[in-house]
Amino acid sequence: MQLPPGFSNPNDPWVCKLKRSIYGLKQASRQWFSKLSSSLLHFGFAKSDPNLFIRQTSNSFMSYPLITDCLKSGLYKWAGDAQSFNKEGPYIELVTSPNNPDGYVRQSVVNKSGGILVHDLAYYWPQYSPIAAAADHDIMLFTVSKSTGHAGMRIGWALVKDEEVAKKMVKYVELNTIGVSKDSQLRAAKVLQVVTDGCKYPTSKEGSLFDFAAHLMEERWKLLRAAVRQSGLFTLPEFPHGSCRFLNISFAPRPAFAWLKCEAPIDDCEAFLRSNNILTRSGIHFGVGPQYVRISMLDRDENYDVFVERLSTIHLRQSMQVDETAE
Ligand SMILES: Cc1ncc(COP(=O)(O)O)c(C=O)c1O
């Protein structure tokens, strides 16, 4: 039996057994559309009506261009959004996944050889996103602030496969910071130890820190979606469900930031929300228009509750203002 051209290497003798076919069945077209929609949503498309998918690209974590430009390195400079990168020669691609600001899971998009990929996995934790598989990239960055919520130490870590690269990174951090505070390192190590022990030997019926945090994020996203529905003025991205191999459940992502869009006629979402006593960061800082804002979902309970309450009652305040101007 011969495979069609392009499907395998002629020296490679594998033949695949087809386990299931969706063609020719009564439900084939429905299944096909369901697979297509979940894949498009997975790649960051938004569904604007049942058959229309739109991709609103939002660039990377805003600190990367700022830091790169500030360093003014002779070795590299910021080259813009990876989606539109088409230069020849070596390059570094930063893959922030789940992405800040929009929360979508990302893959590398620059399809060339000679690149170094740095995976920023600050948000690849089960409270935000289903953990599809153990992360296994050459260079992976993490931070305590987003994994356990201990933001005060500002400590992160990297998992790096190549020992020489790892040594260079350690040297760079040492020179750049004159040594990271031992106090912070010890506290971060202790926090991570307690969290990992809590996963291996849970002492409470609530489970590990990740069970607790996943539940909290789920509740917060529920409240936010209800407030957005009530206001009728905004939209939020939709995320497809995925199975989480860490929590052993299937759920839709609940990102650390809400990527909120103000619908027409509001064209400056940040200004509109500020006039309603809600402080956010405009989409213009992330390479998209001012209709978008990024909202932190990780604030303290008291602040989060006030935020949701203000958001859900905006339409009431707006209509009161219209009434007052009409009088
Ligand atoms: C994508 C991403 N990577 C890295 C960081 C750095 O995190 P920290 O400075 O809290 O360690 C942040 C912080 O917001 C982030 O959003």
Automatic annotation (TrEMBL):
<dbReference type="GO" id="GO:0008483">
    <property type="term" value="F:transaminase activity"/>
</dbReference>
<dbReference type="InterPro" id="IPR013103">
    <property type="entry name" value="RVT_2"/>
</dbReference>
<feature type="domain" description="Reverse transcriptase Ty1/copia-type">
    <location>
        <begin position="2"/>
        <end position="55"/>
    </location>
</feature>
<dbReference type="InterPro" id="IPR050478">
    <property type="entry name" value="Ethylene_sulfur-biosynth"/>
</dbReference>
<comment type="subunit">
    <text>Homodimer.</text>
</comment>
<protein>
    <recommendedName>
        <fullName>Alliinase C-terminal domain-containing protein</fullName>
    </recommendedName>
</protein>
<dbReference type="GO" id="GO:0016846">
    <property type="term" value="F:carbon-sulfur lyase activity"/>
</dbReference>
<dbReference type="InterPro" id="IPR015424">
    <property type="entry name" value="PyrdxlP-dep_Trfase"/>
</dbReference>
<dbReference type="InterPro" id="IPR015421">
    <property type="entry name" value="PyrdxlP-dep_Trfase_major"/>
</dbReference>
<keyword id="KW-0663">Pyridoxal phosphate</keyword>
<dbReference type="InterPro" id="IPR006948">
    <property type="entry name" value="Alliinase_C"/>
</dbReference>
<dbReference type="InterPro" id="IPR015422">
    <property type="entry name" value="PyrdxlP-dep_Trfase_small"/>
</dbReference>
<dbReference type="Pfam" id="PF04864">
    <property type="entry name" value="Alliinase_C"/>
</dbReference>
<dbReference type="GO" id="GO:0006520">
    <property type="term" value="P:amino acid metabolic process"/>
</dbReference>
<dbReference type="Pfam" id="PF07727">
    <property type="entry name" value="RVT_2"/>
</dbReference>
<comment type="similarity">
    <text>Belongs to the alliinase family.</text>
</comment>
<feature type="domain" description="Alliinase C-terminal">
    <location>
        <begin position="61"/>
        <end position="314"/>
    </location>
</feature>
